[in-house]
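Why does residue order matter? Because the sequence determines the fold. Keep that principle in mind as you read this record.
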Amino acid sequence: MRFAPLVSAISGRGAGAWAVHSEAMRQRAAGRDITFLSVGDPDQRAPQCVIEATVAALRDGETGYSGIIGLPQVRAAIAARIARRTGQACAAENIAVLPGAQAALFAAPQCLAGPGDEVITPEPMYATYEAVGRSTGARIVNVALRPESGFRIDVAEVERAVTPSTRMVWINSPHNPTGVVMTHAEMAAIARICARQDLWLLSDEVYEDIAYTSPHVSAWSLAEATGRVVVASSLSKSHAMPGFRMGWLAGPPELTAHLHNLILAMFYGSPRFVQLGALPALTAELPEVASLRQDYARRAALVHAILATAPNCRSNPPQGGMFALLDVRGTGLSAEAFARLLLERKAIAVVPCDGFGPSGYGQLRISLTLSDASLAAAAHRIVDLAREVSQAPVEA
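Structure:
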């Protein structure tokens, strides 16, 4: 049987990044006790007011179709939230609701890029970016975020990557997997490049509420980006609501019209009860979000302090998000080999970043989504493995 070209486009190194996680899932199903530090699935509970509003919506019979691009009051609430946070105008006509930020990040490039186009994005990049880009027929052009420079973006390198075929620059802050938070100067410089070169700026801001060493800067806040910026975000990480699949895109009204047609053909809208349940989280700055951010800041410091003692490894302290990186190249093992050995010997699942781009080679992405005690115990076991490998090297 033949399959469509799309199936090849959405496979590749990004899809392979989950191989160790998948094996760990198989072992857990077989009865082995595995510590999962592989997926960014928050361990905190969703805010009680959101749960109560969702249950109330279900009890009120809000189980029918919603508007294709979202309920009007929900789109207005998201727009007001963006305007409140960025100081820039945003209206309901700028907003499309989608089932999660990943759906938003798939939908936007379908409307912004196509065959023959180039999309510039820093790497290491989240594992799905490559597949999304390829699904449009566009080519992903990477700009390295190098470990030796703290994974900070080189704006001049971004500009050098622009060609007549470039259609879009795709950024992510706080960054997954590196945990770097872009500064206002970096973000504004990227926006100016897009303005000069007539490019779209797609900004993945799903971790916007989990920046803990410096403030998050939204691309929507930049005057330089007016009319060409598209922002994707959600409540999945910030409000511990990944299962709700409540995400959105903010962009020019013309894009929203195209998204309407795409969503019509794919999802036929997002669930009414989910959108109505999310309203309390969209209309107020909930204390649970600040508490969650404090959790990740504390956990990041804890895990970094322990991993910093791992022989022949380098721990990279994150500035935001819910992951820490550990560079294991000094052990002589690849990230995947180390991750597989970690699963075999220590029953810990992490994600090797080889599938996130060349600058991710040798890096392990370690999720901070367990309690402090569980994270500390797991981090010590990772250090133990690094020590074992250093004392008795194994073949990579």
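The chain has two domains: 6-45+288-391, 48-283.
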